[in-house]
Amino acid sequence: MMTALHAAIIASLKSTFSSVPTCEAYPRLVKKISSPAILTEIVDLTPTTDLGTEQLEVAARFRAYIVFDLTDLAAEMDTVNMAAAVAAAIKKASRFGCEVGPAKVLSVEPADFKPDLLGFSSWVVEWTHEVCFGDSVWSGTGSPVTEIMVGWSPDIGIGHEPDYEQVQP
User: What is the pTM of this model?
Assistant: First the structure.
């Protein structure tokens, strides 16, 4: 699920920002990066509330780093403008064609791209998606409820079936 979602995010950003030479997963190894760049990463998976489905629901937190080479005089404002555009694109794409909750943009702010690499202007867009892992105990076969009956205590249970009233749909 996470591999497909991350790939869909990168593909969507590449399509939306086709003039950006580098749009890929945040590199773990030092390599030359063409500027401007959009680099995405999965930050963490934080468990959320129990849905009562026996699935693990998490808030999957992502970051997209927008990086410009400072040799361009307009780099700092270009970085800010592209960060805002990336945040808007993430909000618009919402689910990126995957079965996840809609994107919730958390922040758009300056970032340390790589503290050891000077000469870059960098901002980061951070957002989450709610993602469920595992199968829901409520999916699959079964028949839909067609009749709902209600009883009032103490006239409930076996022997009191005639005391129940049907709830109108």
Answer: 0.78
